[in-house]
C-alpha cells in the first residue's frame, strides 16, 4: 500500500481498538497513551469519537476505557463470513503438495477432536477417517496441540472430561503425563503422535489460534512409518506446519508476540 493511500487518523483509531481488545479490564487514558505512543490529546479525541459511535465505553467509576458493545455486532458479522475450512483449505492443499502426505484440520469438542476438513495423500493405502469423525484428544497430535494452547481454566476442564484408554503401548494414560507433554508442546510449538493412536501411524500438528491467542483448531500432517521415520517427519514437516498455522492464525486476528506464553 502506498503511504499516500493510508488514512492516518483511521489507522490510529484501529490500533487503539486492537490495544483495548487485548485487555481484560478498562484502561486509563495514561495507560493507553503509554502503551500506544500517541499524544494524550490525540488519544482523547480518538476515544471520544469511538465512544460516540459505540466502539468504546467509559467506566463510570474508574473513568477507564474498554471496548464497546458496537464491536460485538461488527465482530459477529465478520465471523459469519469467516469460514475456517475455507480459510485453511488453500494452506492444506499446499501442505499436501509439499509433503505428499495426508493433511487434517480438526477442532476440539469436549475430550475429543472432530475432523472438519481432510486432504488425503495420493497413495492407495490411506486412513479411513472422514469429515465429522471423532478421536480422543489425548492420543492425537491435533488434540494435544489444541489443549496446549487453551487458557488454564479450559484446559483443566477438558482434562477432567478425559477417560484415558491404552490404545497402543505408547499411549499416554494419565493427566499428569499429558501435562508433561503439554509443556513440551508449548515450548516447541508443535505436537507429535508417535504411534499413540495406532501402531505404525505418526503425525505432527500445529495450533491455529484466534485473536485471543487460544487454539481454536489444529492442523496436522499424518504419515505411516513405512514411508518415513518420525524423526524425518518432525524435521521436514514442523517448519511447514508452523508457517501455515501462523498464516491462518493471522487471518483469524492472532498477533504473535515475542516472549513467554
Description of the structure:
Helix 1 packs across helix 3 (40-53), helix 5 runs antiparallel to helix 9 (230-251) and helix 6 (141-148) packs across helix 8 (175-188). The protein is of the alpha+beta class and 261 residues long. It contains nine helices and eight strands. A six-stranded antiparallel beta sheet has the order 5-4-3-8-7-6, sandwiched between helices. Strands 1-2 form a two-stranded antiparallel ribbon. It has helices at residues 8-21, 29-36, 40-53, 70-80, 84-99, 141-148, 152-161, 175-188, 230-251; strands spanning 56-58, 65-67, 102-109, 112-119, 134-136, 191-194, 201-209, 215-224. The longest helix has 22 residues, at 230-251.
Number of discrete helical segments: 9
Provide the β-strand percentage band.
15-25%
Strand numbers in spatial order across the main sheet: 5-4-3-8-7-6
Main beta-sheet annotation: 6 strands, antiparallel
Report how far apart the termini are: 32 Å
Mean pLDDT: 89
Q: In terms of per-residue confidence, which ranges show pLDDT below 50 for 5 or more consecutive residues? A: none
Helix content: 40-55%
- Summing up helix and strand content along with how strands pair, one would put the structural category as alpha+beta
Number of strands: 8
Radius of gyration: 22 Å
What sequence of helices (H) and strands (E) makes up the elements?
A: HHHEEHHEEEHHHEEEH
Q: What global shape is seen?
A: elongated
Amino acid at each position: 500500500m502506498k503511504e499516500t493511500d493510508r488514512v492516518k487518523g483511521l489507522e490510529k483509531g484501529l490500533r487503539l481498538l486492537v490495544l483495548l481488545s487485548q485487555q481484560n479490564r478498562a484502561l486509563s487514558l495514561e495507560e493507553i497513551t503509554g502503551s500506544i505512543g500517541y499524544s494524550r490529546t490525540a488519544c482523547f479525541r480518538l476515544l471520544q469519537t469511538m465512544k460516540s459511535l459505540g466502539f468504546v465505553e467509559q467506566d463510570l467509576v474508574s473513568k477507564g476505557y474498554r471496548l464497546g458493545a458496537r464491536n460485538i455486532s461488527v465482530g459477529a458479522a465478520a465471523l459469519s463470513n469467516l469460514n475456517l475450512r475455507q480459510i485453511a483449505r488453500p494452506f492444506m492443499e499446499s501442505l499436501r503438495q509439499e509433503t505428499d502426505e495426508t493433511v487434517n484440520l480438526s477442532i476440539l469438542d469436549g475430550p475429543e477432536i472432530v475432523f472438519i476438513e481432510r486432504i488425503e495423500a495420493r497413495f492407495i493405502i490411506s486412513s479411513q477417517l472422514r469429515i465429522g469423525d471423532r478421536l480422543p484428544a489425548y492420543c492425537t497430535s491435533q488434540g494435544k496441540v489444541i489443549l496446549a494452547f487453551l487458557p488454564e481454566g479450559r484446559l483443566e476442564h477438558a482434562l477432567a472430561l478425559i477417560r484415558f484408554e491404552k490404545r497402543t503401548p505408547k499411549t499416554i494414560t494419565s493427566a499428569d503425563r499429558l501435562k508433561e507433554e503439554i509443556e513440551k508442546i508449548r515450548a516447541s510449538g508443535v505436537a507429535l503422535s508417535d504411534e499413540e493412536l495406532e501402531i505404525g501411524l505418526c503425525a505432527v500438528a500445529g495450533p491455529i489460534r484466534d485473536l485471543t491467542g487460544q487454539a481454536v483448531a489444529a492442523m496436522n500432517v499424518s504419515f505411516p512409518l513405512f514411508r518415513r521415520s518420525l524423526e524425518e517427519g518432525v524435521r521436514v514437516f514442523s517448519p511447514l506446519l508452523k508457517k501455515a498455522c501462523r498464516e491462518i492464525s493471522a487471518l483469524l486476528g492472532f498477533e504473535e508476540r515475542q516472549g513467554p506464553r
